[in-house]
Each structure stands twice: as C-alpha cells, then as structure tokens.
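[stage:ingest] chain + small molecule (molybdate ion)
[stage:ingest] validated
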Amino acid sequence: MQVVKELGEGSGADELMWKGNADDGGAENPMEKKKSDVYGAEMLTDTDKADVCRAEMLKVTGEAAGGAEKREEPDRVGGGVADDRLGRFNRRAVKVGEAQQRVLAAADEQRLGSELVPLRASGGRRLAQTLHATSDWPPFARSGLDGYAVRAADVAHATPEQPATLRVVDSVAAGGLALAAVEAGTAVRIMTGAAVPAGADAVVMLEQTADAILADGSAAVLIKRAGLPGQNIAPQGEEFRLGGALALPGTVVRPGHVALLGTFGYADVPVHKQPRVAVFATGSELLPVEASLAPGQIRDSNSCMVAAMAEQSGAVPILCGTLPDDPNAVAAALARVWESADLIITTGGVSVGDFDVMSVIFRTIKNGSWASMRQAASGDLPLSTDSYSDDELHSQTDKVATPIQLGKEAGSRLLFDRVAMRPGSPTSAAVLEGKLLFALSGNPGACFVGFELFVRPALLRMQGASDALPRTVTAQLLTPIDKPSPHDRFVRTRLLSQPDGRLSADPLAFSKSSMTASIADADGLAVIPAGAKGADAGDRIEVILIP
Ligand SMILES: Nc1nc2c(c(=O)[nH]1)N[C@H]1C(S)=C(S)[C@@H](COP(=O)(O)OP(=O)(O)OC[C@H]3O[C@@H](n4cnc5c(N)ncnc54)[C@H](O)[C@@H]3O)O[C@H]1N2
Ligand code: MOO
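[stage:predict] done
[stage:export] tokens:
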C-alpha cells in the first residue's frame, strides 16, 4: 500500500497523464520538457499514456508484465487503492468519429415515438412521417392579378389604338365563383386570388384596360394590350399534385413548412417526441447561479448552458441542480431521474481527480456493477463505494427481495470513457439501463465541445434526424495555431466572409478548455488534426458550424 501511495503522489506516469490531458494550459506545466524527453510524450496517444501509466504502476506494485492484461478485467468498485488507481487511468481514448458512431448507434435504438401537436406549436419539431399534399395546389386555376378574365384569342391583337372590346358578364372576388362563363366576346371582372371562370384562359391586368359602355347600355371593357393564353393565371396543381410529398420524416419544421402544412389542412402535425434531458452539474464547489460568490466556489454555469443547448437541439431540459462529489449521491440521483428522462447529461467530475464522481459511476458501468451500485445508493443497500468490495456487494444484493440484474444484463454498457480530442478528452458516454448518459467535462469550454460533438447528434438522431452529425464548412485559417497536439483539436473560432465570398476562420482568444469567455462569440469549431505541428495561417481547414 505504501509503495502505491508513493507512486500516486510523485510518479512520472501521473505527471505525464497530467501533461498530456490538461487543457492548453498544460504547456505551462514545468514538468513538460522533462517528461517529453523521457517518454516522447508530445506524440503519445491517450492509449499510449494509459499504457505507460499502467506499466509504471504495475512495475512499482511488483506485478509481472503480463499482469497488464489481467488489469483489463473489470476493476470493481471498492477494490482498493491500487485497483482504484488502475481503474482511473485505464481509459482508452477512442477517435472522435468512432465515438460519434457509437453514440449514433445507441441513439438509433432510442428513437422516440411520435405525437400530434397543433400546427402552431410544430415549429422546430421534427416530422415523424412523410406528409403529403391533400389536394392539388393551387386547388383551382387562380388569378394572379386584379383585372379581367378573358379568352386569349379575343385579345390576341389588342393595342392601345385598337383595343378589343368585351362585354363584362360577371365579377368574381377571391373566395367567390363566377356564375357566368367567359364566352367569345365577353370578359369577367376578377380579383387577385379568385378562381378563373370557365371559358377564360388569360387574365388582363386592370391597368391595361378601360371601362366602356356598349350601345345597348351594358358594361364593357376595352383591352389595350395583346394577351397570351395562360397569362396571369396559376394553373391548378402548379405547385403540388394531390398526394405529392411535402416533407420527409426527420425534417425540422421551419416556418415555410408550417405554411405548407397549414395550406394542406394539417391542423395537427405528427412529430417526434422531444427528448426529456436531465441535466446535473457535479462538484461540491458549485453554487447556484443566484448565489453570491464565496471563497473557492464558483457558480454553476454549465447547467444552464447545457439546458440552452439541449433546447436548441429540440429537447426539453430538466434542470436537476448540482450534486456533491459523492458517488452514492450521484448514483441515487441518476436512479431517481432515470424514469422521467430520456437522456441524462452530467457535467464535471469525469477526470481522474480524487472527487471525480462520474468517473466512479462510469467504472461501475464498465465493469458491470452499476445495477448493484444503483440499488445500494437508492437505499436498498448501505453501500459506499469505498467501504464495500464487489463480493460483499453481490452477497448483499443476493439478499434483497427483488433480484437485481447486473449492469450489462440490464442494458447498461459503456460507449467510451475517453476521446482523442481536446478539449474534452475525459468526455464519457454510456447506455444506462437503456438510456443514454453523457458525462461532459466540468471545464466550460470542454463541456460545450462535448455537447456539440456527441450530445447534439444523439438528441437529433433520437428525433429522427438522418443528418445528425455537425455540419462543416471549409475556411481559410487567419492566424496560425502553432501548438502540436496528439489529439484532434476543436478550437472556438469566428467565421468571416472574405470579399471573394469564401470563408475565413479567426480563432478566438480565451479559448482554453477551462475558459468561458469565447464560447458566446464562436461561430464554429476549427478542426485542427492531431499532429506534430498545428496549422499555419492560410491553411484551408474544416470548421464545424455551431448552430
Ligand atoms: N491529473 C489529471 N488531471 C486532469 C486531467 C487528467 O487527465 N489528469 N484532465 C484534465 C482535463 S483535459 C479536463 S477537461 C478536466 C476535466 O475535469 P472534470 O470534467 O472532471 O471537471 P471538474 O474537475 O469537475 O471541473 C473542472 C473545472 O470546471 C469547473 N466546473 C465544474 N463544473 C462546473 C459548472 N457546472 N459550471 C462552471 N464551471 C464548472 C470546475 O470548478 C473546475 O474548475 O480535468 C483536467 N484534469
Ligand atoms: O483539454 Mo481537457 O480535454 O481540457 O477538456
């Protein structure tokens, strides 16, 4: 025990981990140079680093090299200090694209059902089925102007000097129907939007006519401009034919769709249900937004930011407040909210610190002991993660009346607990008893990026979006991003239009993982691929658009 403790406080492995994963401020780590020299850390992947850490720890604890594989076995809750440390570091980084695919596959399994909402409330929702035109549109040949419905043949040669004279047989307003048909030598006065009377095949605008009286005293019109068949008439079915598709499932209902659906009589619209998203912030340092600052404490800004982002993704956030750095309290809270949420997001406590509670929760999911922990934390067992071994846990759970299922059997599985990206490398995701759980970093910048890359796509997919991944554009980088990184980097940036119409990316200052200042100004996330160098000014780079 003593040896392990010493390792924890001063090992090169730990410092290497710190260096490799802390945000851009990591460059200021005074140990950086030394550790890079020893391990070539600049280009180590997280997996490499985890391996180095593991190897170092196994060496110190006296285990054979082959023991490393043994350590891949589930690390059990409460398995002792050495196990705990191994569990903390044994997190293999997956690439962003792979992590997104895992999230989308899980979200596919959790697509939400549909509901009918009033048309007025359908804006921003996603259609649950293809909607069709319920009639031709326009439903009748419609005048585009105020004027006279005529037979084009009657006015084919009309000029101001030699106008065509037509007897006016009727007048029709929008919403009405002419009683008389247009026959040779006659016209019907017509208003914009009215149905063109039978017999007419052209409408002449009022400005090209003059009123007249015939010898018999009846009303007439002088047509002073030649007309062509079809002029100023919107034919029936010009825009849509009965049964034609208006919009496909998954389409976001925009104002234009609302207009279409209103046009075709969809008073109620079938849309995907909105995911209910529970949002917890973990961290004993967190104060509610309305509280005054106290020494060492900060306000919980992540919860509301995440809630706003969830809303922007079509979800209904449920703000659940802050949780202390106590795994049992977190497990109990997750269990409590599980019923009323479709997806759960936590922020903070996901790294390797002593109080990183979400890492503990994720380890139980990873090793299949989540259900035990949940049950215990919910009050059925007096469990404390560090006071019970796994065996003790199981022997106690055997005694409870309702047999519990272990995590995997109950539909819980880890999707990833580390991503090869910066910021947000500790971002973790799991399926928790059939529902998606995301543990975003507490660092506001990393929290934001984690949401954009993983949570938003999940929420969109649950609402039926086929194009759930973030949209990207290509832009020219305005200022260099020099720092090499073993992981892809996602740098908050402003997007500007150049005179030639192309886009340029202007990386924002104060854009470290821990910083909040630049989030509000960001139009996009500049993607700087992993590599020994960053990116030069003038490079064409990919930028993820922030909605
Ligand atoms: N030894 C190591 N330390 C750290 C590593 C590592 O690999 N080894 N990773 C670093 C990286 S990268 C990140 S990112 C952070 C992630 O930390 P957590 O996600 O566990 O977040 P916390 O430690 O809880 O908080 C980090 C930071 O953010 C503030 N915070 C937390 N919650 C909120 C909130 N709701 N609203 C506003 N601000 C919040 C918190 O006070 C901290 O300052 O870990 C590095 N460390
Ligand atoms: O760099 Mo962490 O990955 O700061 O979010």
